[in-house]
Specification:
9 helices, 29% strand, 6-stranded parallel sheet, 22 strands, elongated, 6-stranded antiparallel sheet, alpha+beta
């Protein structure tokens, strides 16, 4: 989980049991359990997956309660674990993408996550088939009209507080709020209600990478039992719900899920990350009408004041026949100003250098410069989804990233400006699983990658809505 998120949480003494011992099933036992799980999934008519921090540790995000978890090390007075890459650049694991394939195949009906890393949504799980019980560190919501905004940067607050941005819906403009719960925040009905519904409908609930300690979330999987459903738990530590489970698997989540996908003869799809940014060119005539004063800005699509966390710097140059001085923009906001003769036309070239965590070093773009007096405002019609799909297919086909294309182009007459929104492939992950037996019998996997409680109490539990109403009475 994000170290920033852990530091922003209110302090409580009791965060549940931490530093528990990890167990690994012997290879032959693990293989038998993987095959048993695959058969259960194959027979399932309503599969629900319930995930915790353990599903994201292979993404470089530390967990909370493991031997090297954030709260474990805090209690031991040790330094916090180091994230292997910036939180905003974390990418879905093999397990995340396997769940996407199961959903696309119609096998997986719903995902319930206790994580705030947003990786299920980024991986491709449809929002209507996902409950993020504790929120999303990259999501803002408008409390007035309900609009949601997925960001490419980590939202600066938690606890459902106001952020520095406003809703962009016409005639709204309300201040946005973060969506991440603090300990005392109520579980949103829009998240917990569908989670309860699907658990009651489930004939199989698969728990992945969760210690199942925090109530009421940990009790959600049990709701399938009344209807005859089964529970499978995949976790390295023992959990309080193990006795209720039909199968308990002690193994790495990625290894188990990869084995299941192989047993089902299903491939794990690649993950292609596409980020957006805009280049805005604003022009105006000088007082004597002889020159053009223009401003170039490379900005976030989330607002001119928002950071571009995936861009390190931008190198700007001009056509060979121009005498303008090249520039390197290495501080945000990325902004430069120039003055040119009124009748000049030329090309502006950009080398966009990406930050740590991106799989590509840079992308080269060009933008024609020509001043024309116009009183018309217009927006070019571009099939954005078709462009994005084409970029994904090209990245996978060529096993490379850095490809870019225009997804939006609009012009404003006063002040005269043109904004071009680019989509660029910044990261690509492919997943290949090869099962082989080593001399000691261990499995080796080749993983390649270019009426429920609404509050979490200080005892590590969340009170039910009924309990809250009783306490208020």
């Amino acid at each position: 989980m994000s170290l920033g998120y852990a530091e922003k949480l209110s302090f409580i003494e009791d965060v549940g049991q931490v530093g528990m011992a990890e167990f690994f099933d012997p290879s032959h036992v693990l293989q038998c359990k993987i095959e048993e799980l695959a058969k259960l999934i194959q027979k399932s008519k309503h599969l629900v997956v319930f995930t915790g921090a353990g599903i994201s540790t292979s993404c470089g995000i530390p967990d909370f309660r493991g031997p090297k978890g954030i709260w474990t090390l805090q209690r031991e007075g040790k330094d916090l674990p180091k994230a292997s890459l910036p939180f905003h650049r974390a990418m879905p694991s093999m397990t995340h993408m396997a769940l996407v394939e199961l959903e696309r195949a119609g096998i997986l009906k719903f995902v319930i996550s206790q994580n705030v890393d947003g990786l299920h949504l980024r991986s491709g799980i449809p929002r209507e088939k996902l409950s993020e019980l504790h929120g999303d560190s990259f999501m803002e919501m408008c409390p007035s009209c309900g609009a949601k905004y997925l960001r490419d940067f980590e939202v600066e607050t938690i606890g459902l507080k106001e952020t520095s941005r406003r809703c962009s819906v016409e005639k709204c403009g309300a201040k946005l709020k973060d969506t991440v719960l603090d300990w005392e925040d109520a579980l949103p009905p829009k998240e917990i209600d569908p989670a309860e519904k699907h658990c009651k409908m489930a004939d199989l609930v698969l728990c992945l990478g969760t210690s199942l300690q925090i109530t009421p979330a940990c009790n959600l999987p049990l709701k399938c039992l009344r209807g005859g459903g089964k529970i499978v738990i995949v976790n390295l530590q023992k959990t309080p719900k193990d006795k209720k489970a039909n199968v308990v698997i002690h193994g790495l989540v990625d290894k188990v899920v990869a084995g299941v996908m192989e047993s089902l003869n299903m491939k794990i799809p690649p993950y292609v990350r596409i980020d957006l940014f805009q280049i805005i060119l604003t022009q105006s005539l000088s007082g004597d009408q002889r020159f053009i004063n223009w401003t170039l800005r490379v900005a976030s699509v989330h607002g001119l004041t928002s950071q571009l966390p995936f861009i390190e710097s931008i190198e700007v140059s001009f056509s060979d026949n121009q005498n303008y001085k090249d520039a390197v923009l290495d501080k945000q906001p990325f902004l430069m100003k120039r003055r040119t003769a009124r009748n000049e036309t030329f090309d502006i070239f950009f080398k966009v250098n990406y930050s740590d965590g991106c799989d590509c070093v840079s992308t080269q773009l060009s933008l024609p410069f020509e001043f024309k007096v116009s009183t018309e405002e217009h927006e070019e019609i571009i099939d954005k989804e078709a462009v994005l799909q084409s970029l994904r297919e090209k990245a996978v086909e060529e096993s490379s990233c850095g490809h870019s294309d225009v997804v939006e182009r609009r012009a404003v007459s006063e002040p005269k400006s043109e904004a071009v929104v680019y989509a660029t492939v910044t990261s690509l992950r492919t997943y290949h699983c090869q099962q082989s037996l080593l001399a000691n019998g261990d499995l080796k996997w080749k993983l390649e990658g270019s009426g429920t409680s609404r509050k979490r109490s200080r005892t590590g539990k969340r009170k039910s809505k009924a309990q809250e109403e009783e306490s208020k009475a």
